[in-house]
Amino acid sequence: GTSWNNCDFETNLCEVLPKLNLQPGWIRRNGQSGMGPPYSDHNGNESAYFLSLSSEMQSSSAALRTNVFLPTDEHLCQIRFHYWVSQMSGTFMVGLQKHSEDTVTNIWQVSGELRNQWNVNTITINSTEKYEVVFLGMVETKRQGESVAIDDITFSEGC
Q1: Of 5, 54, 3, the residue nearest 152 (C-alpha)
Q2: Three-state SS for 5?
Q3: CATH (domain of 57)
Q4: Please, how many CA atoms are within 13 Å of residue 71, restricted to the half-sphere of its CB?
Q5: What is the pLDDT at residue 1?
Q6: Are 23 and 14 in contact (CB under 8 A)?
Q7: Which of 11, 28, 106, 150 has the highest CB neighbour number within 10 Å of its CB?
Q8: Residue 54 is part of which domain span?
Q9: Are 113 and 90 in contact (CB under 8 A)?
């Protein structure tokens, strides 16, 4: 709906992701960048932007962290996102870091997708304290075409 805060990466302005310009492992690019798959965003648009892991590193993981969200009282926080995980060594995780905890709790993970294609997922978060959400991409090897990408993250008003 209209109340969902959307990050489609067409610009660098993503209010929910304050450190978008500072994350060394993620790069904002499109399918025409010459960096391997994916060759389009989740809508099949070759010139539309998304985030993918930088292919410069031999093996890498990179985190994308949201703003601090307030506790979810009457509205649960729903986050919908499109993701691409290459079949050999890609892993994509979503984690929850509560204010009182030092560690990130893994709430969703996918790895080694059999088909190189965009998929979509929605996660629901219920927290009694302030929290941040962490999107973590990992690739173990940098073989040709190994990649992890994310596009169109939308946050419900409960976030």
Answers
A1: 5
A2: strand
A3: 2.60.120.200
A4: 7
A5: 43
A6: no
A7: 150
A8: 5-155
A9: yes
Per-residue pLDDT of 95-131, as tens digits, reads 999 999 999 999 999 987 667 789 999 999 999 999 9
Radius of gyration of the chain (CA): 15
C-alpha 121/C-alpha 92 separation (Å) is 12
pLDDT of residue 144: 65
Distance CA 42, CA 82 (A): 7
Whether the Cβ atoms of residue 151 and residue 52 lie closer than 8 Å to each other = no
| Residue found by looking up tokens 């927290």 in the block | 127
User: In the beta sheet, which residues pair with residue 119?
Assistant: 83
84 vs 29: CA distance, rounded Å:
14
In degrees rounded to 5, what are phi and psi of residue 124?
Answer: -120, 130
Contact 66, 50 (CB under 8 A): no
The Cα 37–Cα 145 span in angstroms is: 6
- The structural domain count of the chain equals 1
CA distance 51 to 47: 13
**Exposed / middle / buried, residue 23 (Cβ in 10 Å: 0-12, 13-18, 19+):** middle
Q: How far apart are CA 108 and CA 134, in angstroms?
A: 11
The two three-digit tokens of residue 24, written as one number:
């060394």
| Residue indicated by tokens 């999107």 | 135
